[in-house]
Specification:
17 strands, alpha/beta, single chain, 11-stranded mixed β-sheet, 5 helices, Rossmann fold
Amino acid sequence: MQFERITVFYNEQKPQNKPLADEVAEWLVASGRTATVVTALDDLSDTSLLICMGGDGALLACAREAAAKHVPIIGINCGTLGFLAACEKEEFQATLTDLFDNKLLLQRRLMLAVHVQLPNEDTQDLVALNDCVLHADKTRALTVEASFNEHELPPYYGDGVLISTPTGSTAYALAAGGPIVAPGVEGILVTPICPHTLTQRPILLPAEGRLKLAPVLKTPLDGADLTIDGQETLTLPPGSRIQVTQSPYIAQLFMSPKRDFFTMLNRKLNWGSR
């Protein structure tokens, strides 16, 4: 597979990753390819491949910016977990060689489109690869009204509601008691966060549907935030409405056959360990 221009990204707030990013770029240039090291993702218009140097957080940020531009990503883990990375940092030469020899798999991961309607008629549109979380802004229970395809759902009462993709099912949703959902499943997972009832359970909904959420803010002490992929937070005034659907954009992630989903569950999350 040929890539005309390769961009190597690392988070400037983690300068310890710069030497490895430079080493990767130098290796690519020595291999006869064009490579540029960047610390910002605001200009990917001429990029045919984005290499993400960092952990899962950096890759999530890359995915949100690259998806709309149809740029594939390969992650080289320089962080703690690296669940979404194609390799560890010590393996980058062999893994990139496999990429250029067409030995890696290109996975297309579902993303969420999050439309926020504010009470003053302003709107904001966001995209998430892992999840969007509607949660109370204090240690105070929050009521969230919900519907799916115009069918009313029971209101959620607790710390909030977590809406995730199959990719995000192994992140915050897993910690909140949600099920593991394989990446190939086309669905949207709704997981209550610390529900104040014994009857609230996670539910997996069809991806083509339309989920609507509305935080009920009854007093000046009540407040709600909407957080995207654990990285972007929007404070919601009373009267705000949220709609979550499948995004028209797809995250394209190169993965090694040696790091398939079930292998990584075992290796990174100790799935089935005794």
